[in-house]
Design brief:
Radius of gyration: 15 Å
Number of helices: 5
Helix content: 10-25%
Order of helices and strands: EEEHEHEHHEEH
């Protein structure tokens, strides 16, 4: 990495299977401005609940998990867009790993916001939208409420349209 960036990290969970398909190293951001009612992780709202880590430190953890892909969750990683963009860029360059990103922002809002949209070229699947307790559905795969979408970001960027991720797509790993 050309410059050191720090990210407030609530925790890093290695070899988890809940934040996307297969084994994943999940980086949970500290800090979220959405404050969704019924959030399963409200301790992640406060940036001060995290530990400030350099992107290089996080990359080392990701690299030691040879067979795990990567997920960014939180909190909201896009509340630290510059840091997570730098981390995602480095992960792709150094490892080529698949990256999923969970955010309360919608894909359309991200596309319209230069600071947020910088991460998109490095993300394989974006799980977008705030958690809505009234739309909670335990039968949904990899998300908590029915308003949230699993977006195939490379296909969406190629076509200029929002393309939903399908479980059997080539974005799986």
């Amino acid at each position: 990495m050309s410059s050191t960036v720090k990210i407030s990290v609530l925790r890093i969970v290695e070899d988890t299977t809940v934040d996307g398909p297969g084994f994943r190293t999940s980086v949970y951001a500290a800090g979220c401005t959405h404050h969704c009612q019924g959030c399963h992780n409200p301790e992640s709202w406060d940036f001060d609940n995290g530990t400030w880590m350099e992107t290089e430190e996080i990359l080392e953890i990701i690299q030691r998990n040879l067979f795990s892909q990567v997920s960014f969750s939180g909190g909201d990683p896009l509340c630290q867009a510059e840091g997570f963009t730098a981390l995602a860029r480095c992960i792709k360059k150094e490892t080529g790993k698949n990256i999923w990103c969970y955010t309360g922002f919608t894909y359309e809002k991200i596309c319209r916001t230069p600071l947020l949209s910088g991460i998109l070229p490095y993300i394989d699947v974006l799980v977008d939208g705030r958690f809505v307790a009234k739309k909670k559905d335990l039968s949904l795969v990899f998300r908590g409420s029915s308003n949230q979408r699993l977006i195939d970001v490379p296909a969406s960027l190629r076509t200029g349209k929002t393309v939903l991720w399908e479980r059997n797509s080539d974005v799986l790993l």
